[in-house]
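Researcher: Next sequence.
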Amino acid sequence: MNRPLTIFIWLAACAAGSSALAADRLQDYAWHMAVQPAAGGVARLPLPREVYLHARTGSLADVRVFDASGKALAFSIGAPQVQSSSERRELPIRIFPLAGPPASSEGLQNVEIRTGSDGRLLSVSARSQPGAQAGTLQALILDLGQQDQLSRIAGLRFTLPGGVGNYSAQVLLEASDDLKQWDAIGTTTLNWLRNSDTQTLANDSIAFAPRSFRYARLSWQDGQPLAFASISAQAVSQNTVLPPRASITLQGKPGKDASQWLYATPPAIPADSINLQLDQPNTVLPVTLGVLRQAEQVTQRHRLYRHHGQARPAQGSYVDSLLNTTFYRISRAGDSSKERVSGDLSMPVVQTTQWVLQTSASSNLAQAPALRLGWTPETLFFLASGKPPYQLAFGNSNASPAATSLSQVAPGFQSAELLALPAATTGALTAQAGAPSAARASADSARPWRRAALWGALLLGVAVLSFFAWRLLTQMKQEQDQQQEREQGREQK
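Model: Next structure:
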């Protein structure tokens, strides 16, 4: 029994050693940055630009968070949420009383309205008719002024003139942008009730769905018309704060001919905008932009943007053309300080290790124009447990994905709560001493059979360990049965 037991212990030690080698360690990652959470608990970290420049996997599978003792912490990575907020403010309204004969079933008639060149309301009056008696107040024409594009009107608030204590009336509010076409947007009963202690119970406003309009008309459906001392508009503005962007400018090198330029690109960058920075003024450059792919790496998403009829080899690398466009830099006549320059071009997210720029043979570029890629960094959430300081590590092409779902990192948190978390800060980028070099990591990633062989050897070791464990248990059971038979034989004698 000693020999199987010895083999069992030896194999168990080998398996434990293999597990230890496979465990995540900070020194296995080429780069790291110190992370300082703003508070305890769940920490929010917008991924720094350096992560995308030095990570070695397109899916950020080689990103980790470690505490001071080297323990890997659970984390989640996802797209940043768009922050939006609403702002309410009161705007004064210019009031123009309209006096005249009672309105007919067709509304107010014979009204003369004068406006300025900017739409500002100047005067409102009823056209006098021969033999007509002096009119009474029929309506109020309101000028809300020019509104910004993000502002909407959600209600009006009314103030009684001095000396009026109690008042009640049912009013109709209509809106217009040209003082010709009017749309009814709401009715309400306005009332003020004041007691002997000068306390007032009031319904002094009318609310409606936010909308944009320049002019309003207030008329009475019931009650005595009244010229209010003031009317204010409740303006609502919706503000959207987009997540911060990141960018990188790449320098090209010559390709297979004078019209082709190649741009080495970090594989983790999820580029969704692209631009060329032209050095020479008065340049118009039609180009085809694509990426270098292996024949087996074609995905359905990129196939949607491939030009019809584009040939590609069954094996090896080829250029996958994604878009045709024109970049330019043109000086304005008579003013060399002002130029018309092509802006960033939006596109579906593309990740690659090399962009390819193809120009026409007549372009005669002396050097490659700089290629600018832009993207929106993702956000990392982790639970600030363990011992600080924390380290954000990345740069290991052999790492397996470790990110988990957000519900396992911040269970019960709502989107608004996550957005309200203060952002953690990072220190300087530090190269890890003794970590695999980029060249060696690239060589390892080019030989996937090495990793497969390692896992095969580990599985084989587990299988051998299981076999010897079974043999050991079987032998121990047989020896136990033989011992019981010998004892029974002695008892019979």
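Model: The helical segments are 2-22, 49-54, 300-303, 406-409, 415-420, 438-445, 448-492. Confidence is low (pLDDT under 50) at residues 4-21, 298-309, 438-448.
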